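Can't paste images in this forum, so I'm doing it all in text. The chain is below; anyone willing to post the predicted structure tokens underneath?
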Amino acid sequence: MTLRTVLKTLVTGLILALSLLAPTVFAGDKTGFFPSIRRIELDRGKVCAGERVKVRIDWQANTVAHQDYQLTLDLAGIGRPPDFSTHSVIQPPATQWQAGVLVHGEDFFITIPGTMAPGWRRLLWSLTQAGAPGQTLPLDNADRHERHSQYCFGEIEILPAGSDAPAEPVVRLPTSDPAKPERPNEEWRLRHAERVADVKSHADQLDLLFVGDSITGGWLNIGQAVWEKEFAPLHAVNIGIGGSQTQHVLWQLENGAIDGINPRVVVLMIGVNHLLASPSHQTADIARGISTVVAKLREKLPQTKIILLGTFPKDRISDSPDRLKIQQLNSLMAALDDGYEVRFFDLTSKFLGADGSLSPDVSPDGVHLSPMGYQIWADALTPIIREMTALRAAREVAPAVPLRSSP
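Text version of the structure:
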């Protein structure tokens, strides 16, 4: 057998193997086909029950595709299951989506049921192979990843039938820069307003401020018992909001979240939602966003000490891609520690077993914490807060350095 024959046989076998693997790749492997929604336009942001709204979507693909896909849209009220669902088959033009090319926009006309109750609805999208609803694909640039492989891209307000609904178009431009302030959606805005009100009501006695995403926000529900015991006595307030990324925290800080306060210490923990909802963000991008958040805190709260926590571990196993990405991110964050005003602490090991695994007892879903997880966090954080509070207090009572007299 000649060398050419051997090589031809090997190449043929490789092609056959790849063809057999293709369905697995398309089923959601990010090394395969995963499109991103680059722009969503609604012909109105408010629509009456019983009326129709037009939704236009622009797509971008990371690689070519040779098959049709089904896009499903659910409308879900805040904290409720979907009360409306529709789907459409997407047929890539010219039998393929070209990598990096914005394909033609897809138009959807949705008639809101006349019986739908008024209120805000999230736009929840999922993408599957046509005829294979169980094979979902990730969608990049979403506000956040919902359960059941759904992704949230904005919201719409349902008004009572017959109301005067203004025909004002709404455009959702997915975020592209973790270091530029951005407000994600209406539900998030409502949570922000609640946090601002809480800050204002405690402004006279606010010594400790927690900033972050749903893991931080979880102190107000799952971790509430631990919070009341450990941090409420320290005059603590929590402005963490579920789904937040660094650009959203920046929007918070620039829109009233920390106005009129002078806490002794801020605890900042952020980062995991970039991995969940914006997988195109690289560790350097996320670190740049976190650095910008720290700088904004220093600018608006110049006397406040900052405890910067490394992003908490994600996933059960120690060598998952996201776990490794978090390790890289935390290494970059450590450079923000100046030894005095900003201190960095990586608490990863506190949450993990001896083999590096993340137990369901600590994190039921591999991201968020259980009551046990919040107790572990409190046990590790409390001595750090005491140390940083003491440093702030020492500076407050230190005698002023006299100015040198002019000659």
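The domain at 186-397 is CATH 3.40.50.1110 (Rossmann fold). The longest helix spans residues 371-397.
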